[in-house]
């Protein structure tokens, strides 16, 4: 992927959008505070962004439809881009006509927030977006509109349920980190077996020992066989045995996937766990940054592991210190997970909270490298979410 010169442009964070089935369906980008022509050209001129996040759509929150010139629209394919504007812009003269022209050009449009007093919703605009921190419409109030409707900044399970009752079907925010979102994860026994498998891999145990442990866990076996038979590996024959699965994956890849399978659903009928793609996202970005620094293969593996394990306390409902006590990880990985200390800890904090230019400068990361690592990490997380 090409490194963009983003030095003079604001950093843009990609916010995952999930549906009610806990599947990522889009990425939301807030461009309201940006110089839109320059930023859209930088981000969407090269093919990297849309290629990296395929097949997901991008929801662009913009301040004013007048910012979208015909030339800029050539960079924003309507089949991949959904445009979102503050509903307040309807009060400006000529805005309704500009929005109608975008609809005629094939764009899907959302209006963000409540309508200005005295103004009716244009008939062609049937999707809404709301900041869930500010206001949630009453229950069932959105059902008359076709949608999809997006609630963003949904940060806890109670607000998630209120948004769903109102008729929202897309959700973005920190609610996966809050717990109690109705997800069913694996039981503790299955997770302990995965941790035991990781310990065996770390000591180069014989493949027969790995197979014996896999045979004890039907759910884990299901996920492993589903994984190796997925499009991610594109094997020509169906994999039906544990020995074949281990051979196809290889020990290094098996170790990485097991770290993420900790977050997988407990059975084929359960909802996906939204912590899974978030853990993959952190793992992928930390690995890419380590690779950019010239880290060797073992260092990249530890960076990946740091991101993958960073949500175990949320997943297991246990203090991180208690979890780490049984894992025997290197000291610098433990410090990163416990206190966000050291290089790995500093970078993990940037992945969690978002980065600005000053924070990246303190961490010794240039903005182009950060953007590229973010794109590659999202590509990896999307593939993980579709294959696990």
TrEMBL record:
Lineage: Bacteria, Pseudomonadati, Pseudomonadota, Betaproteobacteria, Burkholderiales
Pfam families to which the protein is assigned, alphabetical: HDOD
Cleavable signal peptide: none
Name of this protein: HDOD domain-containing protein
Alphabetical list of InterPro entries matching this protein: HDOD, RNase_Y/CdgJ
Source species, domain of life: Bacteria
Membrane-crossing segments per the record: none
Species this chain originates from: Massilia jejuensis
Limits of the HDOD domain: 187-380
């Amino acid at each position: 992927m090409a490194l963009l010169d983003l030095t003079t442009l604001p950093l843009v964070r990609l916010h995952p959008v999930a549906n009610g089935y806990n599947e990522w369906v889009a990425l939301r980008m807030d461009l309201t505070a940006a110089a839109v022509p320059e930023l859209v050209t930088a981000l969407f001129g090269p093919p990297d962004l849309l290629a990296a996040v395929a097949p997901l759509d991008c929801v662009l929150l913009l301040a004013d439809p007048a910012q979208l010139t015909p030339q800029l629209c050539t960079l924003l394919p309507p089949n991949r881009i959904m445009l979102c504007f503050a509903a307040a812009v309807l009060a400006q003269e000529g805005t309704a006509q500009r929005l109608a022209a975008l609809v005629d050009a094939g764009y899907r449009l959302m209006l963000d927030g409540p309508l200005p007093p005295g103004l009716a919703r244009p008939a062609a605009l049937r999707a809404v977006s709301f900041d869930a921190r500010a206001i949630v419409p009453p229950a069932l109030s959105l059902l008359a509109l076709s949608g999809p409707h997006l609630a963003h900044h949904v940060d806890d399970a109670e607000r998630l349920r209120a948004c769903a009752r109102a008729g929202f079907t897309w959700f973005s925010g920190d609610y996966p980190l809050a717990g109690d979102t109705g997800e069913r994860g694996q039981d503790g026994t299955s997770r302990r077996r995965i941790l035991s498998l990781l310990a065996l891999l770390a000591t180069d145990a014989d493949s027969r020992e790995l197979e014996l442990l896999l045979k004890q866990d039907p759910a884990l076996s299901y996920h492993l066989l589903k994984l190796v038979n997925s499009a991610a590996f594109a094997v020509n024959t169906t994999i039906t045995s544990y020995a074949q699965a281990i051979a196809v994956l290889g020990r290094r890849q098996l170790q990485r996937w097991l770290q993420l399978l900790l977050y997988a659903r407990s059975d084929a009928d359960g909802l996906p766990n939204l912590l899974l793609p978030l853990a993959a996202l952190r793992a992928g970005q930390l690995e890419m940054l380590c690779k950019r620094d010239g880290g060797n293969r073992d260092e990249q593996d530890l960076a990946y592991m740091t991101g993958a394990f960073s949500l175990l306390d949320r997943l297991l409902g246990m203090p991180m210190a208690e979890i780490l006590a049984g894992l025997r990880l290197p000291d610098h990985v433990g410090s990163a997970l416990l206190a966000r200390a050291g290089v790995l800890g500093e970078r993990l904090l940037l992945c969690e909270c978002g980065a600005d230019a000053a924070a990246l400068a303190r961490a010794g990361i240039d903005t182009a490298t950060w953007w590229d690592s973010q794109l590659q990490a999202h590509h990896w997380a999307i593939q993980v979410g579709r294959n696990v």
